[in-house]
Amino acid sequence: MDLHPSKQKEQHIGSGGDIHGCVEPKRLETEASAGHHLISPNCSPPLDLNFPLPGEKGPACLVKVYESWDSFKVNDVLEVYGILSVDPVLSIVNNEERDSSALDPMECMDTAEEQRVHSPPASLVPRIHVILAQKLQHINPLLPACLNEEESKTFVSNFMSELSPVRAELLGFLTHALLGDSLAAEYLILHLISTVYARRDVLPLGKFTVNLSGCPRNSIFTEHIYRIIQQLVPASYRLQMTIENMNHSRFIPHKDYAANRLVSGVLQLASNTSLVVDETQLEQGQLDTTGVHNVTALGNLITWQKVDYDFSYHQMEFPCNINVLITSEGRSLLPSDCQVHLQPQIIPPNMEEYMNSLLTAVLPSVLNKFRIYLSLLRLLDYSISDEVTKAVEEDFVEMRKNDPESITADDLHRTLLVARFLSLSAGQTTLSRERWLRAKQLEALRKARLQQQKCVNGNEL
Length: 461
Hints:
Elements: E1 9-13, H1 25-32, E2 37-38, E3 47-48, E4 61-65, E5 78-85, H2 88-100, H3 112-118, E6 127-135, H4 150-160, H5 163-177, H6 182-192, E7 198-200, E8 203-205, E9 210-213, H7 219-232, E10 236-240, H8 243-248, E11 254-256, E12 261-263, E13 274-278, H9 289-304, E14 306-310, E15 315-319, E16 323-327, E17 338-341, H10 351-361, H11 364-378, H12 386-402, H13 409-425, H14 433-457
Parallel strand pairs: 4-6, 9-16, 9-17, 10-13, 13-16
Antiparallel strand pairs: 1-4, 2-3, 5-6, 7-8, 11-12, 14-15
Helix pairs in contact: 5-6, 5-11, 6-13, 7-10, 13-14
């Protein structure tokens, strides 16, 4: 099947969806569910499937691309059409071809480890020989694949006409999930529709990392908040920030020169993945060198939306677009764009029962509307007219005059971000005076709450 070996590129697909037309799908599924490692039939060391996330379940496959492979970037999500191959004979043929070419050292420079990693048995890791591959604009199956087509425009306009009640329902749903805190629910909606829309030099524009402080030191609450987010977005991951995880997890991908492959890491995530960092799990202890590197990597992802891949002799920056929500008791140790202190209005006697009832009470059709709402608004264009820009500048100058000590350029940047996502959340693609005033009001409420909590605790949040 290797028609063009010199042009061929291989990619590991860790969680590439269902395997259709497979000869032995049940066996593949069982073997993959054992975790990262599979035992190959020739009793060689366990085969590492190289999944980025711990506990990830397969099946895995090797995707063989024969043309235009250089148009794909790291962490792109692709839709692939091709020929599925699970015949073990083809692996043997491939190995024999490698052995025969060993007479010419220039033709085969692969080490034994590299051969084992790149040519695992097809019965364990099937091949897909690509006929057509395309990068996806989004990964929500409820939305049309391409929003620029005429049929898609009709879908979008129909949904936008009923946007207001959907937003109101979603706000009510998240308010209940956040124990009656409607302000925190507002900011959570803004966070969930945020996305990096441009980069100015090294600064990513549009990122909106929220630190939800004041969370009870109770894994049930944060776990269920993640479960709710998991039901709303197409891709998500919960990172429990324990000393154990920090010191022993592999956050940054690194190059394995013996096997000539990139060993994946936790932060190797697809664009627009929702990453929930649970800092309420952090206990007393000491971070080792790995832990310090992992915390630094998390901070770089949040601040610069980039991950530095480790190539031993140097590091290479790869830009990313990850929505990070940090749940913590006090102010997070990690940087954030916006801290919202949770003020519960209700304290349920049984947290687990309360959270479970929230999800079961929502109709599947309503849940689908929430999913479409959050995915669609991320894809809308947004602009600010010259007239509104001038009004905002004058308003900011006036704010600085009234309170020169506490109003900074960062406040302007954050308020503009809040206004942007507030406008988009209402289906408006340009900033209005009304939305700007509403953004200022939300920010004033958020800051007043933080100040109030600071006075209660007597220290910095």
